[in-house]
Amino acid sequence: MNSIPRKGLLAISSLTVLLALGACDRFGGTAVGDRTASRTEQSARTAADETRSMGAAGVQKVDDATITSKVNAALAADKDLSAVKIDVDTKDGVVTLTGPAPTPEAASKATKLAKDVKGVTSVNNKLTVKAG
User: Fold this and answer.
1) Residue 119: is it exposed, middle or buried by C-beta count within 10 angstroms (0-12/13-18/19+)?
2) Looking at the 3D structure of the chain, how many domains does it have?
3) What gap in Å lies between CA 51 and CA 107, rounded to an integer?
4) pLDDT the model gives residue 34
5) What does 28-84 look like in DSSP terms, one character per residue?
6) pTM for this one?
7) Which residues are CB-neighbours of 117 under 8 A, at least 6 positions away?
8) What is the dihedral of CA 109, 111, 104, 82, to 10 degrees?
9) What backbone phi and psi angles, to 5 degrees, belong to 129?
10) What residues make up the domain containing 123?
11) What span, in angstroms and rounded, lies between the C-alpha atoms of 84 and 73?
C-alpha cells in the first residue's frame, strides 16, 4: 500500500528536478533536463504498468467470487443437490467441489452445473457419495 504514495512522491520529485534542471546548460550533447524527462517518463510508464497488473489481479479475484456465487446458486436451484451441503471454492477459474453427494449421478450433475457457469475453466469434483 505504501508503494503508491512513494511512486507519487517520486513522480513529483522527478518533475521538480526536471523543472530545476530544465534551464541548465547542455552536458555531453544532451540537456540534463532531457535526460531527467526521459527518466521521469520511464518511471511513469513503470508505475502505470504496475497499477494495471494490480488491477488485473483484483478483477480475477472478483471473477472467482462471482463464479463461486453462481455455482452455489446453480447447486441450490437443483432439486437433487439443494438439500446437500457442497462446498465450492474457485481459484483462477478452477472450481473445486467438496462434500457429500446423495448419488453418483448427483455428483456428476454438480460437475455439469459448475462447468456451465461462465468463467469456469475446469472443475475438480471431490464429492463423496453418501448412501442414505
Assistant:
1) middle
2) 1
3) 41
4) 61
5) TTEEHHHHHHHHHHHHHHHHHHHHHHHHHHHHHHHHHHHHHHHHHHHHHHSTTTTTS
6) 0.55
7) 67, 70, 71, 74, 95
8) -60
9) -80, 125
10) 3-129
11) 13
User: What's the first-to-final CA gap in the chain, in angstroms?
Assistant: 52
Q: Are 33 and 22 in contact (CB under 8 A)?
A: yes
CA distances from 14 to 19, 25, 30, 113 (A): 9, 18, 18, 54
The number of residues in the chain equals 132
pLDDT in tens, the chain (132 residues): 455 566 666 667 666 666 666 655 555 555 555 666 676 677 667 766 666 666 665 555 558 999 999 999 999 998 888 778 899 999 999 999 999 988 999 999 999 999 999 999 999 999 998 765
